[in-house]
Amino acid sequence: MNEKLHWGFLSTADINKALIEPLRTSRRNTLIAVASRDPQKARAYAQQHKIPRSYGSYADLLADPEVDVIYNPLPNHLHAEWTVKAIEAGKHVLCEKPLALSVEEVDAIAGAAARHGKVVSEALMYRSHPQTLNVRELIQNGKLGRVRLVRGSFSYPGTRPGNYRLDPAMGGGALWDVGVYPLSYARFALGSEPLEVFGQQVTGPSGVDESFVAQLRFPDDVFLQMDVSMARPYHVFMEFVGEEATLIVPRPFNPGPKEAIYLSRQGLTETIAIKGTGTYTGEVEAMADSILNGAPPAVSLSDSRATVAVIQALFASARTGKPVLLSSSA
Length: 330
Fold this sequence. Notes:
This protein has 330 residues and is α/β, with parallel strands linked by helices. It has two domains: 5-123, NAD(P)-binding Rossmann-like Domain (Rossmann fold, 3-Layer(aba) Sandwich); 127-282 and 308-325, 2-Layer Sandwich (Dihydrodipicolinate Reductase, domain 2), CATH 3.30.360.10. The protein has nine helices and 15 strands. The strands form two sheets. The chain has a nine-stranded mixed sheet with strand order 14-13-12-11-7-10-9-8-15. Strand 11 (231-242) and strand 12 (246-249) form a beta hairpin. Helix 4 runs parallel beside helix 5 (103-116) and helix 5 (103-116) packs antiparallel against helix 9 (301-320). The chain is globular. The model has no long low-confidence stretch (mean pLDDT 96).
């Protein structure tokens, strides 16, 4: 393997920009290639961002023997297909959320990763930030008492016509796009999986869920209430309500170098200041830790599988108008 991990971008998606600087300043990672289905677009992108190599097809990028890690930011319905192709080409993969659109696709990814000995992780950038780890520690150590209720929200205004997020066949809709965040955050912080889910959606003209509201029951009668939307003003938070205290996280999903969370007990609120790197810096360094040092991925494939299983159950609930029970083997 190279002295530094050599990364390649599988497309010229806008989200790539978040990783360019963290890869450029890292001691263990470097960006060397980008691919597009349009050779001219790939060359222009590479020149603009000073990336040494460009490829006019995704397959050509995967064939580059010097690329160690692929970042996959393709539309949702292509995540599983191209992640498996990258693994089979001998690459580690950081794949944008959601990792896949079915548990069968996650299983195919996991099987390929096991056969080829490659690290694959879903790109939930908040997972590597000290704020997230601090929240989990506070909850797991009983600082709130027994947690009884979790609330989470992620909404933003509007998606432009032609965007894949408006296409049901491409894995569009609010639940796949941003529902992954409060769902995965709550499960990570609680350290448990939901037993039963109930969901309702507002369907837009294209057929995707523009807004989705859900309630999930966890063991010991802990409830998560979450709402996500592509059609409401920007609104993001996580809140954990315990029998002794309440914890509010104003910026849970993309925290910056300096953040604060708020612990309220008996009418008094304590501000807990947290320092950390940018979330995308943490994300690429976590991949390096896993590939070079054998550390567990920031988001395991079993974790991603559980997320997909819950989202599939929520859609089933919205279709039938009834709660859906989740089995331990889902």
